[in-house]
Write a structure and sequence with these properties.
Elements (H helix, E strand, L loop, with lengths): L7 H8 L1 H7 L3 H9 L11 E6 L29 E3 L6 E3 L12 E8 L6 H10 L12 H9 L9 E4 L18 E3 L17 H21 L4 H16 L2 H4 L9 H7 L2 H15 L3 E5 L20 H21 L6 E6 L21 E7 L7 E2 L1 E2 L6 E3 L2 E2 H11 L7 E4 L3 E4 L13
Parallel strand pairs: 1-7, 1-8, 4-10, 4-13, 5-6, 5-7
Antiparallel strand pairs: 2-3, 4-9, 8-9, 11-12, 14-15
Length: 437
């Protein structure tokens, strides 16, 4: 019997040393095979859209309603009444009236949790990378992992697009720039960095590209290593390829009917419509930010008076999200597209002195839709105020593992930071197996 202090790696290394040479394997290959031997479900999703509710959306005012509270008199509870949905026995907030009748296309993970409460940036990083921040390693976001493992569907599209403001928490970390994102902050036009100046015609552009190619080639010929330059080279090449008319035409939402654009509604809805078009062009992962702070003054961070007009945010989310689900379904894309609606944490049932809510990371809801999963399933139960988990807790790594498996990615596979440091794709995350056939 092995001593308790002996690791699995030590055991494998001792007993398999001879077989390495005989079988022509290296040590890392053997370890990788051993640690990924566990069977994981393999989903059929080809794309992922993450809808990000920055600020911390209240689970009991959206997807996990509880008994009514009273902000004025500081009585803990939900701010809005609940309504029935397409899933028997399951209710949501009354302002999700468009999502409610199609909730059978959704799964609600009502017991997601982490310990980060008072710091938005740290909690945002946790939800995007699945790990605490570290002083020695910058971990990749889930979008970059999907981009790295699956790549773009088409060579005429990037693998990963962010519709919102750029941030390191969304970035590729140690994976490098090839797993990074292209971003835009408005649907009025495509990424500004891809737009050629009107004074530069095709002939002039080609001369520029030829000169740049010559400079890069000569530099790399004279320089040893040069990984940073090689990554820059790859980024420039991709940008030049994507600045052509084929990809840039995707951003022309006027090609869609007036009725459909009106159905999607606000700027957030137009972002959702653009996301569908980007998927059709070959983009693999898209994050759509719902940063409509002007609606209630605080966005989803509903301290104090921000709570008073929170319903406008919820209604805006409801319209864009429900229309996206039905639009993808109409195009036979819903089963191949996993939609994830997430925020950095939830809110407590209690009200603060200004009538709003503080931060709560012990239990909150992440909604998923489509993706070829067993939809209409509610995962986990919280107590009467949504403050504590009663059953079936879901960690952030578990959530990430579920996303990975839905997209056919092994969540235990090891990536390598700093050349040879193995880092599993998820931090020991276990997928929610009930959601897979």
């Amino acid at each position: 019997m092995l001593e308790h202090s002996s690791s699995r790696r030590d055991f494998l290394k001792t007993t398999a040393a001879g077989s390495l040479a005989a079988g022509g394997l290296n040590w890392h290959s053997l370890v990788a095979r051993a640690e990924t031997k566990k069977e994981f479900p393999v989903g059929k999703a080809e794309h992922c859209i993450m809808i990000w509710l920055g600020g911390g959306s209240s689970q009991i005012d959206t997807w996990d309603p509880k008994k009514m509270g009273d902000a004025k008199n500081k009585v803990a509870g939900s701010y809005y009444p609940a309504i029935d949905t397409a899933v028997p026995g399951v209710q949501v907030c009354e302002h999700l009236k468009m999502c409610a009748p199609i909730l059978d296309r959704f799964n609600l993970l009502r017991t997601v949790h982490h310990e980060v409460i008072d710091e938005h940036a740290a909690a945002t990083n946790r939800m995007h990378t699945g790990r605490p921040t570290a002083g020695t390693v910058v971990y990749p976001s889930i979008g970059s992992i999907v981009a790295h493992k699956r790549g773009a569907v088409s060579e005429n599209a990037p693998a990963y697009i962010l519709i919102g403001y750029p941030n390191v928490t969304r970035g590729p970390g140690f994976l490098g720039s090839r797993a990074g994102y292209v971003y835009l902050t408005s649907t009025e036009a495509g990424p500004s960095s891809f737009t050629r100046s009107p004074s530069v015609n095709s002939k002039r552009q080609q001369r520029r590209e030829d000169l740049l190619s010559q400079v890069r080639s000569e530099y790399l010929h004279r320089t040893t290593g040069g990984q940073t330059i090689r990554e820059y080279d790859a980024t420039v090449s991709a940008a030049l390829r994507l600045s052509g008319p084929e990809f840039m035409s995707v951003f022309n939402l006027k090609e869609e009917s007036d009725d459909l654009r009106n159905a999607y509604g606000s700027e957030f809805g137009q972002r959702c419509l653009l996301a569908r078009r980007l998927l059709q062009s070959g983009v693999r992962f898209i994050e759509v930010s719902h940063n409509m702070n002007f609606v209630n003054g605080s966005g989803w961070d509903t301290h104090n008076a921000g709570q008073l007009k929170q319903h406008l945010l919820i209604q805006d989310l409801d319209r864009g999200l429900a229309t996206l689900v039905l639009d993808l379904e109409k195009h036979n894309m819903l089963d191949k597209t996993l939609i994830v609606v997430a925020s950095e944490f939830g809110r407590p049932a209690q009200f603060d002195n200004g009538g709003g809510r503080g931060h709560h990371g012990d239990s909150f809801t992440v909604a998923m839709a489509g993706g070829g999963l067993k939809n209409g399933t509610m995962i986990g139960t919280t107590d009467e105020l949504g403050m504590k988990i009663v059953d079936r807790p879901v960690s952030v790594p578990d959530m990430h593992a579920t996303i990975c498996c839905a997209l056919g990615i092994n969540p235990a596979e090891e990536l390598y930071a700093a050349g040879d440091r193995p880092v599993p794709i998820t931090d020991r995350g276990e997928p929610i197996r009930e959601l897979f056939s």
